[in-house]
Amino acid sequence: QHWYNISFGSSDAHITLTTNSQSNEIACEVYIPDTKNLFYVLENEKKIIEKELDMKLEWMALDGKKASRIKISCDADITNSDEWDEYFKWLESTASKFQKVFPKYMKK
Q1: What is the pLDDT of residue 108?
Q2: Residue closest to 30 by CA, chosen among 13, 54, 55, 53
Q3: Deepest of 36, 46, 55, 102, by most Cβ within 10 A of its Cβ?
């Protein structure tokens, strides 16, 4: 498995941490499996969310699919075990920020 899901108080979405050895990146995303409306509610708050997170996110409506995602990624050579601690710190910090920020905008 190359992903790990984290709940954050909503059955409509979860945080997913991923590793991708083909594109040499790690990522943290809000994955919304079935609720396009929730994606658009969050997208309407895009500027505020990105400012609060201090991150530029990739907003992926995934047209033609039920799911959508809001993602940030960074370069990572996951075959280099010397860097794993830094990658884990980035994933933990980013997921923690997502857990604090996104739920506030999901309840509107």
Answers
A1: 54
A2: 13
A3: 102
Q: How far apart are CA 84 and CA 96, in angstroms?
A: 18
Which residues lie below 8 Å from residue 58, measured CB to CB, with a gap of 6+? 69, 70, 71, 72, 73
Structure tokens at 104: 């506030």
Burial bucket for residue 17 (CB in 10 Å: 0-12, 13-18, 19+): buried
| Sign of the dihedral defined by the CA atoms of residues 96, 102, 103, 104, in that order | positive
How many Cα atoms within 13 Å fall on the side-chain side of residue 95?
Answer: 21
Tokens of 45: 């708050």
Residue 42 identity: L
What is the structure's pLDDT at 1? 62
Taking the chain (108 residues) in runs of 10, the rounded mean pLDDT of each run is 87 95 95 94 97 98 94 95 96 97 86
Q: How far apart are CA 37 and CA 20, in angstroms?
A: 28
